[in-house]
Amino acid sequence: MAQETEVTSSPPVGENCTNCKRLDRAYVGGLFDGEGTIHFAYRKSPSKNVATTNMWVSLCSIDKSIIDYLYGLFGGMTYTTKAYMQKGNPPKNSSQLWYWRQAHKGTFTFLRSILPYSKLKREQAECLISMESVICKIGHRSLREKESLVALAEKIGSFNKKGRASRFQKQGGEITYVTRPVQNQPLTLERFG
Known about the structure:
Elements: E1 2-9, H1 14-18, H2 22-35, E2 36-44, E3 51-61, H3 64-74, E4 77-83, E5 96-103, H4 105-114, H5 122-130, H6 132-135, H7 143-167, E6 168-171, E7 174-179, E8 188-192
Antiparallel strand pairs: 1-4, 2-3, 3-5, 4-5, 6-7, 7-8
């Protein structure tokens, strides 16, 4: 169980992102490919006859300096939690987890800035960016636009499920991590006992 203990927010990302150097964007693109998350949901409110979009990009680390680096470049918000392995009594050596999150229109700015350097999350980012005008539309959406947003939410969700399911496989009593192949190289397996 995680408990939120600290939150820091900033204004929209526009100014910060224009100051990013190419090397910074390349580093963040690789880091985000391995550790980041892209979230998008389109839901109808049960209490109102209105549908909402919910999207963000986020990254979690036990190293606060990485989160501070992302916050300095892209703004957004940061928060920290204590990682508990069980409900109730936390272990004495429980790690502090740091989170960075960029939401709403800042999501598009962030994704565009790292897109040239992204490999694993490139298709997911391109799907979201291609729908920006529909996602950010204010006012009534046509039935076709609503259907497109539902399909996008399902597609983004399937990318996230695919990533989790395909990387870890349980065989007997061991968990195997499957490293994705790079240009015709075979899969490599690392075993965790």
